[in-house]
Specification:
Layout: E1 12-16, E2 37-38, E3 41-42, H1 43-53, E4 58-63, H2 68-73, H3 78-86, H4 90-99, E5 106-110, H5 117-122, H6 125-128, E6 133-136, E7 140-143, H7 148-159, E8 162-168, E9 178-184, E10 190-197, E11 208-216, H8 220-224, H9 237-244, E12 250-254, E13 258-261, H10 265-277, H11 283-294, H12 299-306
Parallel strand pairs: 1-4, 1-6, 4-5, 8-12
Antiparallel strand pairs: 2-3, 6-11, 7-13, 8-11, 9-10, 9-11, 10-12
Helix pairs in contact: 11-12
Bound molecules: 1-O-phosphono-alpha-D-glucopyranose (G1P).
1-O-phosphono-alpha-D-glucopyranose is lined by residues 117, 137, 140, 177-178, 197, 209-212, 236-238.
Length: 307
């Protein structure tokens, strides 16, 4: 029997999508920030596709007021489909249909009050039940050939326990994130020994930050249920994990693709640029536009690119 057979499979993923998106006002006054498009897909759909490719079967959204269009997005739009059919727009129709999770594969619950990420995750406890699960923060858009969560699943199959995706940041940025400290095991795996949420400047134990992808054991819900407040007076998932580390193993996977923090305007714009350069139709024109923008000596061209 293989070593991997003893670990419970990761079937469900939690997506916290209750945030207000204040950094994107007025765009997010009536549109959830998770529905803002990166090229032609909502930010949230990238995370759902990543989870799907990693083998996730059930998608749990922790939403809040004003987020009902998320439910509509992941549902069949009969009138739209009929119109597309009549107009023989089969390509786009096929795409819409293949994007949809199957009936019964999605659950929604509401966070009710903005008490922090840990609280949002805790709201999913009954839907997850007593099994390990994935947690994806959709704001963090992870661009790579192999989905970030898939690499984490592979390590989980070897190690079990809890797995966190990390990457290196500039030392001055460490105070914006959850930071991990780790030791290297004989097989090269990174075993996490400490974590801190948003360390005060200059106090971070390393430059490896938690970039928004987790595989967690269900015992984390009991700790989150104690509702202890941490950084920013919020209930933090990092604090619950730090307490769980006393009883369970946590390993890290270093993400080697590109991460875009779409919760910030700059990250969102960078993501749009990076994904548009991947699109064969858009790429030549975007490249031309960038060349023109760079070319200080050609103001006329610059004007043309911007119009
Ligand atoms: C959350 C987590 C933090 C992590 C970050 C990644 O923080 O608490 O550990 O590094 O996401 O984006 P937030 O961005 O909600 O402040």
């Amino acid at each position: 029997m293989s070593k991997t057979a003893s670990f419970k499979p990761i079937r469900k993923a939690v997506f916290p999508v209750a945030g207000l998106g204040t950094r994107f006002l007025p765009a997010t006054k009536s549109i959830p920030k998770e529905m803002l498009p990166v090229v032609d897909k909502p930010i949230l759909q990238y995370a759902v596709e990543e989870a799907k490719k990693a083998g996730i079967e059930h998608f749990v959204f922790v939403t809040g007021r004003g987020k009902t269009v998320i439910e509509d997005h992941f549902d069949i739009a009969y009138e739209l489909e009929q119109t597309l059919e009549q107009r023989q727009k089969t390509d786009v129709l096929d795409r819409l249909r293949s994007d949809l999770p199957e009936a019964g594969q999605i659950s929604y619950t509401r966070q009710q009050s903005p008490l922090g990420l840990g609280h949002a995750v805790w709201c999913a406890r009954d839907i997850i039940g007593n099994e390990p699960f994935a947690l994806l923060l959709p704001d963090m858009l992870m661009k790579s050939d192999t989905p970030c969560l898939k690499n984490m699943m592979d390590l989980y199959a070897e190690k079990g326990g809890n797995i966190i995706s990390v990457e290196e940041c500039a030392p001055e940025d460490a105070s914006k994130y959850g930071i991990v400290q780790f030791e290297t095991e004989s097989d090269g795996a990174m075993k996490i020994t400490d974590m801190v949420e948003k360390p005060a400047p200059g106090t971070a134990p390393s430059n490896f930050f938690i970039n928004g992808r987790y595989i967690l054991q269900p015992e984390v819900f009991d700790l989150l249920g104690e509702k202890k407040r941490g950084a920013g007076n919020e209930i933090q998932i990092t604090d619950a994990m730090l307490r769980l580390i006393k009883d369970q193993e946590f390993h890290a996977v270093t993400f080697t693709g590109q991460t875009f923090d779409c919760g910030s305007r700059l990250g969102f714009l960078q993501a749009n640029l990076a994904y548009s350069l991947d699109d064969s139709d858009l790429r030549p024109q975007i490249q031309k536009m960038l060349e023109n923008l760079n070319d200080e000596n050609q103001p006329q061209k610059r004007h043309a690119a911007a119009s």
